[in-house]
Design brief:
Blueprint lengths: L4 H7 L14 E6 L5 E6 L4 E6 L11 H10 L9 E5 L4 E5 L4 E2 L8 H15 L10 H12 L7 H18 L6 E3 L8 E3 L4 E3 L6 E3 L3 H5 L7 H15 L4 H5 L3
Antiparallel strand pairs: 1-2, 2-3, 3-5, 4-5, 6-8, 7-10, 8-9
Helix pairs in contact: 4-7
Amino acid sequence: MLENSRLNQALASWQDWPLNLKQQPIAIRQLSGFTNQSFVLDTGNQQLVLRLNRIDADSLGISRHQEYLIWGALADLGIAPKLIQTNRPQDFVLYEYVQGRTWTAEDLQQPAQIKRLNQTIQTYQHICIDLPARNYIDYLQHYWKQLKGTPAATPELAAQWQHFLPELKAFQQSGWTPILSHHDLIAENIIDDDQRLYIVDWEYAALGHPDLDWCSISDDKNHPASQVIDWINRLWWLLPNTPERSNTGN
C-alpha cells in the first residue's frame, strides 16, 4: 500500500462507502495531477479513484460545492467518470476509474480527434444548471492579490497586468451568454477509450464564456478568451501554493 496518512485515513472509512465491498481496497498507484492527490484503488473486482482534495482549494478559486453540482449534472451524459461519494469531513471524493488513453498534444492537432472533442464540448455546453456566471475580473483579481508582495510579482509582470486589465474588463462586459465551461480543457484531462471521450477534473468548471473551452484547444492566441486563459495559467503557476513555486522553496 502507498504510504500517505490522509490516504490511509480515507481508506479506513471503506465500510461507509455505498459499495458492496468485502474488504478494504488497496491503493495501487498514484495518478498525475497538480491540484490534488489521486490514487487508483483495487477493490478486488473493480478499480476506483480516490481523490484527496487540496486543503487550500479556495485560494485557487475552487468551490467544491459548485464542482459537485456540476459533476452531478454530468452524471447521465457519459462524458465524465461517475461520482460515487463525497466525504466532506475528510475532504475526499471517490469516483469510477475510466479505462482509456490520456490524450497528448498530438491529439489536439488531428482534425478527426478535434471533431470528436467538439461533439463532447457541445454535449456539456447544453446543460442547464443554476449557478452564477463566472466574473473573470474577480477571479483573476483573487489570484493577483495573493501574488502582490511576493517575489513573483515583478515590476514587469505588474506592468503587464495593469496593461491587460482594461482588456479583461472589456471581455467581461462584452455581453456574452454564460454556458457550462470546463476552464481547464487540456489534453491531460481527456481520456479516450476508443468509443467515447471522458473529460475529467471539473473543479475549475463554472458557467463561463462560450468561447473559452474552444480557445483552450485552438491555435488562435489572439482571441480575447485565449488571452484570459493565458493569464489564468500564468498567475496560477506563480501562486505561492502551487507545485512549481512550492518546489523552488518560494
